[in-house]
Write a structure and sequence with these properties.
mainly alpha; globular
């Protein structure tokens, strides 16, 4: 087997994206099960995973729909959960901003927590990669991740009724985010933002329509930005 340093960027991306299948499969299957149990037909469940491709916001939206929350709040909550994608895009722009428009469009479509986390780490450790190398790596990461998500959603929606209740698939969602967020807490600002958002989310659990989550996200970003500002001022 060739060492990782000798692999092409695409092959390295595929190799590093494959382990996420272990998380993506139960995560996607759980959404398929919950979507069908919420009363959505199969085509709508699949549309969620193919068009949105954002597990946390999909779970949020479906749960709020089941609770009979107004559509505007459902959309606002899903968008709030996905605000991190704006930061992901800004972080990727210096690396991939010079790629052709059609490639940037596909990258934006496939930019999810897993592809971002791996790409950002690889790009930071491979300063000599060209834009085409970075695009190839991103494509390699997305190759196993996206089909695993969509396929698992379909399997969960079709076969969900046959899954025994003893199989606790809901472990996948928190496990996925712990695995992704943990290694990315590299500064005091990151840790402060994560801590405040977690504490706020737990403290505001009682706020109706999941609006406590939106407030927690805003508080976390404000605190993180302020800690970062003070660190730069002191430097």
């Amino acid at each position: 087997m060739r060492p990782p340093s000798d692999r092409t960027p695409f092959r390295r991306g595929v190799a590093e994206g494959l382990p996420f299948i272990v998380i993506m499969v139960p995560f996607g299957a759980l959404f398929g099960v919950l979507g069908v149990e919420a009363g959505l037909p199969l085509d709508q469940v699949m549309a969620f995973s193919v068009l949105v491709i954002a597990g946390a916001s999909q779970f949020t939206a479906v749960q709020l729909m089941v609770d009979g929350v107004p559509a505007a709040i459902v959309v606002l909550s899903a968008l709030a959960v996905n605000l991190r994608m704006v930061m992901y895009s800004a972080s990727m722009a210096p690396h991939l901003g010079a790629a052709p428009l059609w490639q940037r469009g596909l990258i934006a479509y496939l930019l999810v927590d897993q592809t971002y986390a791996l790409a950002q780490t690889a790009f930071d450790t491979q300063p000599r990669w060209s834009v085409s190398d970075k695009v190839a790596y991103f494509a390699g990461v997305a190759l196993p991740v996206f089909p695993a998500w969509v396929g698992a959603t379909w399997a969960g929606a079709v076969l969900g009724a046959q899954v025994p209740d003893a199989w606790q698939l809901d472990f996948a969602m928190p496990l996925a985010f712990v695995a992704l967020v943990g290694p990315m807490l590299k500064s005091r600002a990151h840790v402060a933002a994560a801590f405040v958002s977690v504490v706020a989310a737990l403290s505001l659990w009682w706020v109706p329509w999941n609006l406590g989550l939106i407030a927690a996200a805003v508080l976390g970003m404000v605190v993180g930005a302020e800690v970062d500002r003070r660190a730069e001022a002191a430097a």
